[in-house]
From TrEMBL:
InterPro entries: Beta-barrel_TonB, Beta-barrel_TonB_sf, CarboxyPept-like_regulatory, Plug_dom, Plug_dom_sf, TonB-dep_rcpt-like. Residues 1-22 form the signal peptide. Residues 123-232 form the TonB-dependent receptor plug domain. Belongs to the TonB-dependent receptor family. It comes from the Bacteria. It comes from Flavobacterium helocola. Its main location: membrane. This is TonB-dependent receptor. Keywords: Cell outer membrane, Ion transport, Iron, Iron transport, Membrane, Receptor, Signal, TonB box, Transmembrane, Transmembrane beta strand, Transport. Residues 406-844 form the TonB-dependent receptor-like beta-barrel domain.
Amino acid sequence: MKIFKNALLIGFMFLSTLTVFSQSKVKGTVIDGEFNQPLSGASITIKGTTKGTTTDFDGKFELSTEVKSGQIVISYLGFETKTISFNIANNSVDLGNIILLTDASQLQEVVVIGKGIIDVAKERKTPIAVSTIKAVEIQEKVGTADVTQAMVNTPSVYVAGQAGGYGDSRITVRGFQQDNTAFLLNGQPINGMEDGLMYWSNWSGMSDIANFIQIQRGLGSSKLAISSVGGTVNFVTKATDKKEGGFASMGVANNDYFKSTLAYNTGMNAKGFGMSVLMSHWQGDGYNQGTRGEGQNYFISFGYKPNDKHNFNFLITGAPQSHDQNFTKTISSYLQYGRKYNNNWGTLNGNYLSERTNFYHKPVANLNWDFNINETTSLSTVLYASWGRGGGTGNYGRGKRTTSEGYVDFDAIYANNIADADGIGSAESSDPNRNNNYVIRASMNNHAWYGLVTNFKKELNENLNLNFGLDLRTYNGDHYRQVSNFLGLDGWYETRRLRDNTHFSNNSLPLGTNTVNQSYNINPWYSFFNSAEDNQKIDYDYSETISYGGVFGQLEYSKNNFSTFFQGAISNQSHQRFDYYDYQDEFQDSEKVSNVGYNVKGGAAYIFAEKHSVYANAGYYSRQPYHDNVYLNFTNQVNPLTENEKVLGLEAGYSFKSKKFNANLNAYRTTWEDRVVARSIVQSANATIGTTPVLAGDVLFIEDQGVKQVHSGLELDFAYKPLDNFELRGFASAGNWEYDGNAIRTTRDENLNPLLVTETDLDGGKVGDAAQTTWGLGAKYEFLPRFSIDADWRNYDKLYANVAAKDNLELPSYDVVDAGISYKMLVGKEKQNSVSFRFNMNNVFNEVYLSELRSNIKVTDDISSTNPSLGTYQSNGRVYKGIADGNQGFFGLGRTWNFTLRYNF
């Protein structure tokens, strides 16, 4: 037996020796052709395999291979990809300096960290439906708008909500709203853990710090168990820049908008240290009335590369801001007061005041560690945290007054409040419904979120890669209301019944009383460091803890022109709610609820005739419900009907790539079951819903459960560059997004108390809130060196109201044209610096259009549900472009402009 073991050992050593001796080395150095500097982090692969490596800090690489001849592919985001042939003699070949030139059609000034975490499609062999927006385009096109403006020329992407104010835009992808589209920041999830929503006001500085945005429609390439029903949007920010320099910029725009930005990079020194810093300030009056805003953005990044194996980067960024808000209104209100009308503001003693202000400060920090263990093994980890503080103001109490012009009459409110001598006297004490007085409250939403994502990558052989990792998160949110302006009162008094676990409205339950006399500043910097005392909170006070743990993995095979992959992830998410205001002490902690979710994806691609490729992907998600759907009516009562949402996605595509023309065609079908659709409207007139009276101006929330949706469609995008100085690009998407089956509908008041529950037939109804058919064409012409003009035209059709209805209301189609002029002037002794000018004009032809509706009133409906004798909207001539003027929505923005001057050094 011992002889046999020795023989096996000798044989193994012999085979290992053969393997070692059969390994050959391909060496070289990659150089940035523009700055004549080493290019660190460039990707080097052997064509037709998954065998690869990256360049070190000095731009050098060394790659082992068993083949004696072939081709290596050198790629780096923002540079033209280069393919070089090699022939090996004596087990080694040095290819010398390899020059990469910048590619204006790709991404610019990119330093990518956490490469194993950030699922960039460029790194994937198997293609997906993807659009990538480079830094220079983001900076040029966004101007004064939210960063969502950079995505408008993308198939199946619709941007709405800009009329609400700075930061209030929304996007949908393939007809799925933001809570069902995954948003990532450098690979880390940033959708709200309670409801999955995105608030772009928290990311107002993204256009300053983004290196690129990649929109992966449908299944995407992310390995995480995230909410990518419609797609995945990955924001990849700047890291610590590799070269010294910076920029200063100034921008102005319509409605007294002004923005200034200053950034500086120390560059990486010989010891591997570097730092990048960016600061900006903005302010403006807003396009619509009463939508003033102001904010800052900061970005600080520290990089350290001690050796070729390790790369560390720490960054922190935040965008403290406050902006006044505009809500949807009836078309008749716009026609009466003008399309810029906003009824959420007024004056107090002649000074401007809004009752609806969003204020928030959400710093995000992460520490990235890239560890190249050896030539075939790497580990990427990001440890992240965010701390959100702030909220939104609104009316509280029923003593609101309005002027004849439709604005808030703060002077009358103040006079009414001070008529009560002590401010907390008989009016409040004798009236638990608070019908006589009015204050401005702030609904606070504070949170602390910590997480870790780590990915281990192993090249099993030249054709096979394995990835697996962890996704861990913990979240604690605190929600309460506080007074921001007493408007003449000395305090506020209120009562409520303290609940137990079974009785929510029982006069035998104990009575809780509360009197507050302190108001709180709504400056975002102040609110970040100051919180209301427990005895100064009103209306509600609760918190929740959400914990998430997931594992994921991916196996990818690639050989010659064929590639295939399989992904899988499983996760557990737990929830618990704690209510300190509406419950007796012994009943404040809810039952803890845990749900398991998972996803699986797979696909394959084949390249034929070099320029042509096809692919097909399929995936299935079992997604846990959001926290806000786990507990009923914002109480500690667990929703017994809640179950995992089920998503099935199928897609296929074709790509053609040549030197002058590229095109992609995608087809998809996504089914989504057991989901929740929620929306809000502003009550247009006094009415009774169920048994509860509601008043004009009250905000109502409508929720549909058990909804199934089926989304299918085609997408096309192309780019054509017949001349070096002329580029033509375009996109088209044609979708058919419908509801399937019935839904249970619950109508709630602004405090989320249920008013009415009904069952609704939705079968065949069109999904709204996004145009199902879009077309776009853009062109850019450089008629002088670094002097160019560009324009984009888009058409939107098959746009339906944002309601779940069998017979949904279709809005009129519309067109928008945007245009811009750019000029870059080289300055300095060696022309190393530059001054850039950019002018944008959006909606050049001042198209008047409805961008969204949140109601479904037909022209044949009665104006009054209680008095049909008044007739219909149509019989009374109350119709606008075929739409009943009682519908609530937003008009799109008219013509706007912005100008930016930027000095790069």
